[in-house]
Write a sequence for this structure.
């Protein structure tokens, strides 16, 4: 499949239709790990990479030629999967019935059509392309074209960014807006203000030390260029990026739901971590921002851990992080924050791990000698299985494992890892 071809959405839908009967049970179990749709979307935006402007892999569909896809192609497919996953989560009980699956997918596509049609009908593109709304297969043709328009951003080439990176990194917000719309909350109307606020917070975070470093400037410039802002808004943001912005100068729209406020906060963390370190000024800024947005202490810590985890695992792939300096510091910081979550869930983790004799034996061996590649892979797989059972740690299952092994060896109680023959003595 080529996501840049016409009728890619039909091919996508057919692929999902073929796979869904085989993954419906595991998908249902995955959905049930999250008490609320907002929790699942938060996990998906992080684990898929959509929040960072780099989509890693797909969940619902499976194609063999993804290696030839451009960044924008992979991002578009992950975005589309996000819409389907949101609809399936809300109607997850229907996943129990295999005979309902195709009808469920058809309804998901129709809901996405109605959502985008409601908010896109007055856009200049559709005013001049009204024929899209009259086609027999209008659902697929219209939704496909709308997603193409929402994601693609050829203007980035004129702004100095390379081909393949020309896409709107803020289009992931549509997944959040879609979920609210399905629950009769018309948040999409506030999209332009939300997008602008994200950029302003990233600018303020980058300037919180009094000056802005090159990596932070590149990150904010990348998000600004890809955001499809109107000319006047982009001009104002460019001036703020150049001159700096204080937190108290940013006007937060009233009555924003908690999941949107979390996205505002997490984009500030991404901005701060673009140079891989967090200093005292940045810690203070993030604390004040969390207070301004009324983000809980637990979510502050969780967001920091998730973002550090993703950057550590994908720093070579992120378009705005092509450097290695500071990752030793970031790894240390990540380990400290992970330990906070381990301590909160230690009884559950120890209980789950104590039931896996092979995992404990391998961890004990790892404390004293180097594991083989096969053994390390076994440890990684079994650690992921343990983390799957604890919702607040699920983020580490993607990609997880490799970074967690040395951390777990340091913080797990030695008596847990010690072979039974030693414990008996």
């Amino acid at each position: 499949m080529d996501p840049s071809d016409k009728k890619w959405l039909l091919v996508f839908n057919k692929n999902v239709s073929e796979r869904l009967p085989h993954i419906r049970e595991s998908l249902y179990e995955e959905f049930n790990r999250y008490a609320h749709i907002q929790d699942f979307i938060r996990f998906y935006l992080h684990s898929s990479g959509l929040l960072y402007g780099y989509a890693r892999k797909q969940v619902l569909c499976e194609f063999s030629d993804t290696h030839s896809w451009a960044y924008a192609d992979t991002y578009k497919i992950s975005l589309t999967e996000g819409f389907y996953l949101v609809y399936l989560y809300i109607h997850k009980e229907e996943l129990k019935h295999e005979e309902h699956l195709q009808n469920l997918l058809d309804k998901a596509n129709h809901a996405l059509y109605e959502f985008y049609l409601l908010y896109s009908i007055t856009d200049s593109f559709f005013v001049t392309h009204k024929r899209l709304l009259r086609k027999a297969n209008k659902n697929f043709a219209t939704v496909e074209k709308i997603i193409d328009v929402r994601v693609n951003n050829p203007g980035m080439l004129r702004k100095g960014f390379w081909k393949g990176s020309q896409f709107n990194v803020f289009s992931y917000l549509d997944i959040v807006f879609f979920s609210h719309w399905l629950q009769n909350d018309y948040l999409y109307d506030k999209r332009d203000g939300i997008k602008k606020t994200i950029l302003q917070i990233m600018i303020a975070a980058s300037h919180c030390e009094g000056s802005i470093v090159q990596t932070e400037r590149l990150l904010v410039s990348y998000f600004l260029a890809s955001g499809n802002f109107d000319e006047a808004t982009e001009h104002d943001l460019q001036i703020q990026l150049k001159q700096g912005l204080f937190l108290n100068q940013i006007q937060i729209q009233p009555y924003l739901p908690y999941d949107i406020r979390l996205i505002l906060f997490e984009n500030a963390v991404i901005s701060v971590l673009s140079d891989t370190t967090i200093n005292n000024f940045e810690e203070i800024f993030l604390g004040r921002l969390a207070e301004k947005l009324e983000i809980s202490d637990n979510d502050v810590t969780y967001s920091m851990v998730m973002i550090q985890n993703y950057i550590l695992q994908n720093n070579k792939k992120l378009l705005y992080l092509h450097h290695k300096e500071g990752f030793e510091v970031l790894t240390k910081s990540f380990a400290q924050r992970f330990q906070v979550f381990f301590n909160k869930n230690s009884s559950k983790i120890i209980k789950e791990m104590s039931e896996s004799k092979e995992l404990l034996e391998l961890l004990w061996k790892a404390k004293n000698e180097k594991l083989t590649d096969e053994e390390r892979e076994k440890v990684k797989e079994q650690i992921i299985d343990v983390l799957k059972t604890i919702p607040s740690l699920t983020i580490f299952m993607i990609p997880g494992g490799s970074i967690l092994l040395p951390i777990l060896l340091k913080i797990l109680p030695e008596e847990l890892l010690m072979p039974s023959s030693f414990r008996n003595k």
About this structure: The CA atoms of residues 108 and 207 lie 42 Å apart. The chain has 21 helices and no strands. Residues 8-31 form the longest helix (24 residues). The chain has a mean pLDDT of 78.
